[in-house]
Every structure is written in structure tokens, then in C-alpha cells.
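Page 42, continued from yesterday. The earlier attempt failed because a stray header line got pasted into the input along with the sequence. Redoing it now with the clean sequence only.
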Amino acid sequence: MDTRSLAGTALTGATRRSGASAAVSTSGRLNALADDFNNFYGDLEEETKIRKQAEEKRVSRLELELGKIERVIRTETKRRIEASKSLQVHERCQSGVGSGCRLASGRRSPALVAGVIQPMRTL
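This time it went through. C-alpha cells are written below.
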């Protein structure tokens, strides 16, 4: 809403009632008030824009961090699957059931090579 149009309306009403000098001061005050509102809304829009940009940056950082966490989880899952396979092979070798004590990939079990099962890594 343009508040400057209100200033013109007040000017004609004030002129009828108390003369031109009162109308000028009322008109000036209304124009100043309208300018203050326009400045306020401009500042409000600018602050909203800055807040949205900050929110977008925060979301972007969170997405990057989530991507890193997902990669770590995938890597850890693969490592644990390999450790589980190693344990199964190791148990078979210990019980005498296994043939050659090798993993499905053809490599020797890391548990057998190291002599122990590797502890879990922390994130």
C-alpha cells in the first residue's frame, strides 16, 4: 500500500479545516512516516534475503556432511562384511571343514594373516 496517497488525502482535509500551514506540517509528517515505512519494509526484505541465504548455506553444509557420513558408513559396512566373512572362514579352518582357508575373493582371510580379528574402527 502506498502511504503517500494518504498524505494527499490528509492535505485536502486539513486545508478545509484549519488552513494551509497546518496542512503542510501534517502532510510533511505523513510523508516522513510513509518514508519510514518504506525504509522499514526495505530493511525487512533485505534481512529476509540474508536469512534465506544463511539458511541455504547451512543446508548445503549439512548435505555435504551427510554425504561424508554416508561414505564412512558404506566403507565401514564393507569392512564389517569382510570381517564377518573372515570369521566364518577362520571358524571353518579351525574346525577342519574349510578348503584352503581362503575368502570367496581368493584372498587369504585377514584374520588368518594377522592372527587376530581387527577391532572396530571409530568414526
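Notes: Helices lie at 4-18, 20-95, 110-114.
Reminder to self: strip header lines before submitting.
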